[in-house]
Design brief:
Elements: H1 26-39, H2 49-69, H3 71-74, H4 86-95, H5 102-128, H6 134-143, H7 155-163, H8 168-174, H9 179-206
Length: 212
């Protein structure tokens, strides 16, 4: 029986390949973010369903906003870089007169980026501290990303998920072989993700939209 394909060969887009100038390409960003959701399948525990559900809902919102939320502004100009940027889509979401208020849209989009930040911190910390179990890495990541924005009802659910992280010895082999090549792919994927998170953090701060 053939070994399963390495994880990074199964996803549509790596964050490494998402254009970030003049802005983060929204379509390619959403494609890459769907791959990020799938990495939690490798954790092998339904407790992470809450993390995946949160990320999936936020990605769907961004996809909707790009496809139709500011269609008149974008109509006939879909291929122009300035109209593909995630910052443009995000700004349009904030100022929309549709059902969602600007503050609600800002929170939804912000939650998506916080979820990305949470994943980036957790995996990078795990990669850099090879004696540290994933439960510790992701607990620290949660504290530095999502926890300050969660209420008292949500925090216990995420705390349970962090405790359900697999052991390193279980998780990393699931990324595939050969190990050196997979680790290189992981590092490049994380570097691309971290660049996007930093770029959107700057956009939020400079635009007075809060913090990620």
């Amino acid at each position: 029986m053939a070994a399963p394909a390495p994880f990074f060969k199964t996803i549509t887009k790596s964050f490494r390949d998402v254009p970030t100038q003049p802005g983060v390409d929204t379509v390619q960003f959403c494609d890459a973010a769907e791959g990020l959701v799938k990495i939690f399948d490798l954790f092998g525990n339904p407790a992470f369903g809450i993390v995946q559900s949160d990320l999936t809902g936020n990605i769907a919102f961004l996809t909707f906003r790009y496809a139709g939320g500011y269609g008149q502004q974008r109509k006939g100009r879909e291929e122009e870089d300035s109209y593909r940027g995630l910052d443009v889509v995000t700004s349009a979401s904030f100022s929309s007169s549709a059902a969602l208020s600007g503050s609600t849209a800002a929170n939804i989009v912000g939650n998506d980026h916080r979820g990305l930040k949470f994943t980036a911190i957790g995996l990078r910390r795990s990669q850099q501290n090879q004696s540290e179990e994933l439960s510790v890495s992701f607990q620290k990541a949660y504290e530095g990303s999502l926890r300050p924005h969660h209420g008292m009802m949500v925090r216990p659910l995420f705390a349970l998920a962090m405790k359900a992280c697999p052991y390193r010895a279980t998780f990393y082999p699931k990324l595939g072989e050969p190990e050196a090549e997979v680790q290189k792919e992981l590092d490049e994927w994380l570097t691309g993700l971290e660049k996007i998170v930093a770029q959107m953090e700057k956009f939020y701060k400079e635009g007075g939209h809060g913090t990620i």
